[in-house]
Structures are given as structure tokens and as C-alpha cells.
Design a protein that fits this description.
Layout: H1 2-26, H2 28-35, H3 44-70, H4 73-83, H5 85-96, H6 101-123
Helix pairs in contact: 1-2, 1-3, 1-4, 1-6, 3-4, 4-6, 5-6
């Protein structure tokens, strides 16, 4: 049962990060707003960095899907555990950039929490 719950949560994490990555490519201002730091996307270099973030988010989601499909339960758990540094760093970046605390904790903090729970479920399976 813990493996099933872990797999479902991992699938939701993968889908969410792929969606977020696509949003950074398709609607960079909206993506940045959801992240918690809104840069001037009219500057070509800023828009480029947002697209780079989008591509990396999509790839991260695909890594999770590959491990899910392969049935690599423990490896998936370790990867998700290691990747938890991403939302933790994102929360710190939002807070240090004067972004909303509600996004830092409510989005990035909650994501880190779900990822830790998911990793634990997969690693104890």
C-alpha cells in the first residue's frame, strides 16, 4: 500500500513539474508569478532564463516518469529525496527576493513536504 501511495504521489509530482515547466515556456510572466518572483520578462535575457527553467522542469518531471515506468521504487525514492533541495532552495530564493511568504511556504514549502513524504513512502517499501 505504501508503494502505491508513493507512486501516485510521485506521478502527481511529475505531472505538476511538467505543467509548471510548460507554463514557464508558454506564459513566462504567469510562471514567474506562481514561482513568487516576477522579473521583467520584456527583457530578452530574462525571458530566455525563464524558458531555460521551463525546459529543466519538464526534464525533471520526465526523469520521475522514467523511474516510475521502470518500477525502480527505491531509486525513485532517493531521487525525489535529493530533488527536495529544489523547492527548499526555491522557498529561500523567494524569501530573499522579497517575494510573498505565502508562496515561499505555501507553494515551495508544501512541495518540499509532499516530496519528503513521497520519498519516505518509496524508501520504506
Amino acid at each position: 500500500m505504501t508503494t502505491t501511495i508513493g507512486y501516485v504521489l510521485a506521478g502527481l509530482i511529475a505531472a505538476a513539474i511538467i505543467f509548471i515547466g510548460a507554463r514557464f515556456i508558454i506564459a513566462p510572466r504567469v510562471g514567474a508569478g506562481g514561482y513568487g518572483v516576477v522579473p521583467d520578462v520584456s527583457q530578452p535575457s530574462v525571458a530566455a532564463y525563464l524558458r531555460v527553467k521551463g525546459v529543466r522542469d519538464i526534464a525533471s518531471g520526465l526523469f520521475v516518469i522514467i523511474l516510475l515506468v521502470a518500477g525502480a521504487t527505491h531509486l525513485l525514492g532517493w531521487v525525489i529525496l535529493a530533488a527536495t533541495i529544489i523547492p527548499l532552495a526555491d522557498a529561500a530564493i523567494v524569501l530573499n527576493s522579497g517575494g510573498p511568504k505565502s508562496i515561499a511556504w505555501g507553494v515551495h514549502g508544501a512541495t518540499a513536504t509532499v516530496m519528503l513524504i513521497t520519498a519516505a513512502l518509496l524508501l520504506i517499501s
